[in-house]
Amino acid sequence: MLIEGVFAAVTTPFYPDERVYFRKLEANIARYSRGLLAGMVVLGSTGEAPALDDAETREVLRTAADAASADKVLIAGVNRESLRSVIELAEFAAKCQYDAVLVRTPTYYSAQMTPEVVKNYFCSVADKSPLPVVLYNIPRCVPYQIPVEMVAELAHHPNIIAIKDSSGSLERIKGIVEATRDVSKRTVTVTAMFEAVTGRMSNVAAAQAATFVPVGDLAGGPAIAVAPPAAPLKTRTREIGFQVLTGSAAIILPSLEAGGSGAILGFGACAPESCYEVYFAWKDRDPKLAAEKQERVAQPSQRIGAELGIAGVKYACDFNGYYGGYPRLPLLPLNADQKREVESLLAEIRN
Fold first, then answer.
1. pTM value?
2. Cα 11 from Cα 256, distance rounded (Å)
3. For the residues of 185-251, what is the DSSP string, one character each?
């Protein structure tokens, strides 16, 4: 699976009484789908995944998948504290036609998360998951940073295809890229424009072909109007290595320049176009414009996403035309001064 470009790590909307606001989730996903993002991550850290119970988790995954455009790559956060629970969620995500799963290290028994335990855990997930695995390194939330050497070993597993590294360290991104250069190339299916082909795209194309009825088959029956078949999905193949994505909007450009394949961003939930513009300018080989676009989002993303956290991203979503709302307790919403600060930071970053 091609995991390339900029992905929004989407929020989970709640009513004031903390019930999941599924209609607003649908609206947000539909709007992201109309933009230029490569895809969305559902129930990552920005999605407040640890605050949802199992029934809510499954319904959020299903709702988001139903609302997403078929051409957007969908990655499901499936994190729980046991291997069995993670695999059950991965299987559910596969039924909902997600394209990959995002998996972090378990946290509760952090003192017992030795390198041997962590490596065995990720390999076990990858062995049993019906979907490709994207490793998730987020040391500010998980008291364990996956060593670069371990990432290099895990990258050779046939079902571990990428890593989202949210350490914020450019040196670490460079280290992972360099350490995984010798991973065997994978052949993936892409569009004629070398973009990802999702499972949902293939299913839509197959369904359209199956529902077309040739004129000859209607002989002797009533005359009805039949739409012509849709143009077949044109694909080609592409060779890719292990894919490295940053989780920090402040280093999108230098990560790409270091050999990264893209970014999965909480800041992308409230300012997706501004984040994508960095990638687009880099892809278009315009280093000056790319640097300008990167500088534009660096400080706001650091303050809103990394420092103000979920409440900051959610208020920024409200300010930029998405539905954010309040975080679920124990997290608290922003105060009036913080809201004004977010508005000031986003004055030149509107969608």
1. 0.93
2. 25
3. PEEEEEETTS-B--HHHHHHHHHHHHH---GGGGTTS-----PPPPPP--EEEEEE--EEEES-GGG
Whether 136 sits among the annotated catalytic residues: the reply is: yes
* Catalytic residue status for 15: no
Please tell me which residue in 24, 72, 164, 293 is annotated as part of the active site: 164
Residue type, 232: P
Burial (CB count within 10 angstroms: exposed 0-12, middle 13-18, buried 19+), residue 340: exposed
**Which tens digits make up the pLDDT trace of 220-267?**
556 566 566 666 789 999 999 999 999 999 999 999 999 999 999 999
**CA distance linking residue 351 with residue 345, whole number of Å:** 14
Residue among 114, 110, 168, 109 nearest 143 (CA): 110
Q: Which of 136, 279, 322, 326 is catalytic?
A: 136
From the number of C-beta atoms within 10 Å of its C-beta (0-12, 13-18, 19+), residue 104 rates as buried
**What sections of the chain are H helices per DSSP?**
22-33, 54-67, 83-95, 115-128, 148-154, 170-179, 199-211, 252-257, 272-283, 287-301, 309-319, 336-345
Q: Residue 104 has what DSSP assignment? A: E
Greatest Cα pair distance, the chain, in angstroms, is 75
Considering only CA atoms, which of 299, 290, 310 is closest in space to residue 345? 299
Which amino acid is residue 316, in one-letter code?
Answer: A
